[in-house]
Write a structure and sequence with these properties.
Largest sheet: none
Oligomer: single chain
Number of helices: 8
Distance between the termini: 44 Å
Strand content: under 5%
Shape: flat
Structural class: mainly alpha
Number of strands: 0
Amino acid sequence: MAIVLQSTPLLWTRLAALVFSCVAFSVAVHGGRLHHGTGDWCIFCWAFSFAGTLLVLLVELFGLQTRAPVSWKNFPITFACYAALLCLSASIIFPLYFLKGSMGHSQTRDYHIVSTVFSCLATIAYITEVSITKARPGEVAGYMATAPGLLKVCETFVACIIFVFISDPVLYNRHDALKYCMSVYCICFILSAAIIMLCIGECTGCLPFPFARFLSAYALLAVVLYLSATIIWPIFNFDPKHGGTKQRPYSCGSALGLCIWDKLMAVAVLTAVNFILYLADLIYSTRLVFVSA
């Protein structure tokens, strides 16, 4: 089996991401003393990114792209985008839970700082990989390498973060309007994830309707749904008339990580972020329909 090794900026970027993610989770596991479930999440982010990057490098090293059971035009950039978002989330969450409030000098704190630094470096490396491999104007590329494809990755990732905040503890059982918001997050996540899987599996041609028109119709639906959730979620969580609280409780200042009010606010912000992402997705998808027509 021939080994294909070409020194390119993309190769060195992937090697850098591989090393940075490996150091981040190795140092954290070795001496981080992670006593919180959040630490497990950060370890997963770094380890998943490392394993996926290693897989991509091995497939391209041995020239197995044509034998892979997925579309190689779509899979590497999809994974790189998810890895960038995972490492970014770990770079924010890890210091929030394991460096915030820690005073003085200790070996464990030094391990936490090293993991955070290398997590940030891995994030930069994966963002660089995405910028190198994304589609250029006029270039023939897979859907996931285009702006709408990358937006789908961001939309599903933001939805996953919303699920984390909204389910621990459960924050949507207090009112039917909040349950409606939860259904919006679930429906849009499932459809966006299905689109990504169809593209990676090269199954878009199996649909009984034009894929481009389906994308624009779905993006319009998602914009309407997220617009309603962006309005409803803050009203029923922060308006005193509906049992909400405007002011941040004093107890949140001394809480480890995020308190319930912080999580409610985080969900509100992330809902608005996803609304903006779906709006941009709608604009790009509509342009795609008109260009293809």
